[in-house]
Amino acid sequence: MNPISIDSLKIRIPVRRVEVTNPTLLGNVVVQEIDQETGEFLDSKFKQRAVKFGEAEGCIGYELKALIYREQTLKGAEDFLTLLISSKALESQYLSGISASTLPTLLAKLNSLDIGAMSMDHLLEAKVSDIDFKRDWVALKEEMHSELKHWQPDYKPSQKKGVFLEYKNSKKIHMLRVNDRHSSSHIGRPFFKVYSKQMELEMNSPEFANAHLSPEDYKNLYRFEFTVKNKRAFKENYDLNIFTLQDALNLTQEELKQIELASVSKNFTFHARELAMKNDISINVGICLSLIEKFRPDGYSFLDIYDAITGHMPSKTKRRWWSNFEEACNILATDKPDVVSKEEAEGISELLEFREHYRKL
């Protein structure tokens, strides 16, 4: 699984610090109150009023949005250049996400647009909100479909929000989405989604993918995306003081992992599951071989079989079975590719890593 990085966010830069040159922006200042606790706009008109920079400005297959807000606070009024930025602005580096290493690419793109002259300091010191973080990994669609369909029964009941499964392409699960992206509270049940990035690009963003990526870049790619809406959410949920983009980029992978996993644990209580089998199970690769060979042709997924073997084992024993299972798949990929293909065998490690990472083996 790849490192966590930023997929999109909203930033605010004081106009007194950056020379805005776009006349449409300068003539479209929106007066807005700011929630002092969260740092978010009250009754935001951003989507309706924002100036869009798209294909005509060299943003092929995506848009960047900008608006000048006059923030009304207890200290008085101040104008801020507000930008809604997607990692698609990185173009060929899109899948890397926004990070310290890709920030120069993002800055160059922003300065190529008719917005104004920005510096690296402007970006790093910008106030942030509405941050979507993401993590990518490779997995076969059939296996992820089998895994995600088991998440829904383990969802913690809620009167307001729920799990939404989107089916595409012969009713395979394309996305598991928990709560609502725009109305999700900064506390309680955070928003996240797990989805096929390959299918999302092919169906929703083909122009962007064709212009900036190779199909091999996102083949069998899945994404876990989770949101932290504002500074109050960072503080109350994770005891982190995140005010600026520099603060967000300074978050360690361990800190980001804890935020990521909290978005799952606040919404789910996972229970062990197993597939009923009559065979006696002993701990060795031969058992894995026989069970995979027996049940794969009947349509059971690799994780169904893995769960049947390890369902009642302690965690340390399950971890040892991971290597047994991988070895069995590799043997079958060589000896009986009609049962386990080479591509399936190569994907087992990442699939089991996904399982361990989010809901434990």
Task: Give an overview in words.
This protein is of the alpha+beta class and 361 residues long. The chain is built from 14 helices and twelve strands. Helix 11 crosses helix 12 (302-310) and helix 11 packs across helix 13 (315-335). The radius of gyration is 23 Å and the shape is elongated.
Secondary-structure map:
Layout: E1 5-14, E2 19-20, H1 23-26, E3 30-33, H2 46-49, E4 51-53, E5 64-73, E6 76-86, H3 103-112, E7 116-117, H4 120-124, E8 127-138, H5 141-148, E9 163-168, E10 172-178, E11 192-196, H6 197-204, H7 206-212, E12 221-228, H8 231-238, H9 245-249, H10 253-265, H11 285-295, H12 302-310, H13 315-335, H14 342-359
Parallel strand pairs: 3-5
Antiparallel strand pairs: 1-6, 1-8, 2-7, 4-5, 5-6, 8-12, 9-10, 10-11, 11-12
Helix pairs in contact: 11-12, 11-13, 13-14
In one word, what is the shape?
Answer: elongated
Roughly what is the average pLDDT, rounded to an integer?
85
What percent of the residues sit in helical stretches (DSSP H or I)?
Answer: 25-40%
Distance, first to last CA: 16 Å
Number of helical stretches of at least 4 residues: 14
Strand content: 15-25%
Q: Give Rg in angstroms.
A: 23 Å
Major sheet: 10 strands, mixed
Q: How many strands?
A: 12
The assigned structural class equals: alpha+beta
Q: Uncertain segments of ≥5 residues (pLDDT<50)? A: 274-282
The ordered H/E elements are EEHEHEEEHEHEHEEEHHEHHHHHHH
